[in-house]
Amino acid sequence: MASLEIIRNPGAALLASVDAACFDQPWSEEDYASLLSNPAVGGWVFSAEDGPAGLVFWQCTGEEAELYRLGIDPGKRRRGHGSALLALWLDYMRSCGTGRIWLELRAGNEPARGLYVGHGFRQVARRGGYYPDGPGGGREDALILELALGQEG
Ligand SMILES: CC(C)(COP(=O)(O)OP(=O)(O)OC[C@H]1O[C@@H](n2cnc3c(N)ncnc32)[C@H](O)[C@@H]1OP(=O)(O)O)[C@@H](O)C(=O)NCCC(=O)NCCS
After folding, report:
1. Residue 60 C-alpha to ligand 1 middle, in angstroms?
2. Of 8, 74, 108, 147, which one has the greatest count of Cβ atoms within 10 A?
3. Residue of the nearest CA to atom 31 in ligand 1?
4. Do 55 and 107 fall into the same domain?
């Protein structure tokens, strides 16, 4: 796998442009600018091979963090980039003294679930019908996953 170059303060415009490539329901530059006005919120873009290829975006309040978004450009998936980016970010969270990470994902998002479970996350809750725009026009459950840093295994 190519080495990852992390852009640690990418700004709202770059985050939004990478987000648009990675997610079906992208967040706008205005969304990112508004969220980044909170000093507890942070984001990285990473470059691999020929340019920006993914992002991670979160809120950290010290002891706990919520992972809002982690995405890889569809043309660069299944090369280990998502796993490498998550590992780097978890190391960063450890270095900040964060003890617990939370995240929410769609129950049908098998790639993301596999990624997170592979890094030690476990499911702690399920919110039935949380998303109104599930497959086939129905609702979709949300899964809440948690990772206690230092207790992975
Ligand atoms: C989830 C996502 C970030 C994975 O990125 P990636 O670079 O393709 O992941 P990796 O190549 O590092 O794979 C890591 C693990 O993820 C899981 N995984 C990734 N793609 C998968 C797929 N298509 N099907 C099943 N599992 C998959 C596997 O467990 C994999 O481990 P393995 O290679 O040992 O089987 C990527 O699919 C993505 O951007 N999805 C859209 C955005 C999203 O849903 N983000 C998560 C919610 S915020």
Report:
1. 23
2. 147
3. 115
4. no
| 33 Cα: distance to centroid of ligand 1 (angstroms) | 27
Cβ proximity of 121 and 96 under 8 Å: no
> Which of 28, 46, 80 is where one domain is finished?
80
Structural domain for 16, as ranges: 1-80
Q: Does the CB atom of residue 119 touch ligand 1 within 6 A? A: no
Q: 111 to each of 77, 83, 103, 115, how far by Cα in Å? A: 10, 11, 15, 6
Q: Compute, in angstroms, the gap from residue 90 CA to the centroid of ligand 1.
A: 16
**Residue nearest atom 3 in ligand 1 by C-alpha distance:** 71
Q: Are the C-beta atoms of 81 and 47 separated by less than 8 Å?
A: no
Q: Give the helix ranges, DSSP H, for the chain.
A: 11-22, 29-36, 81-95, 110-118
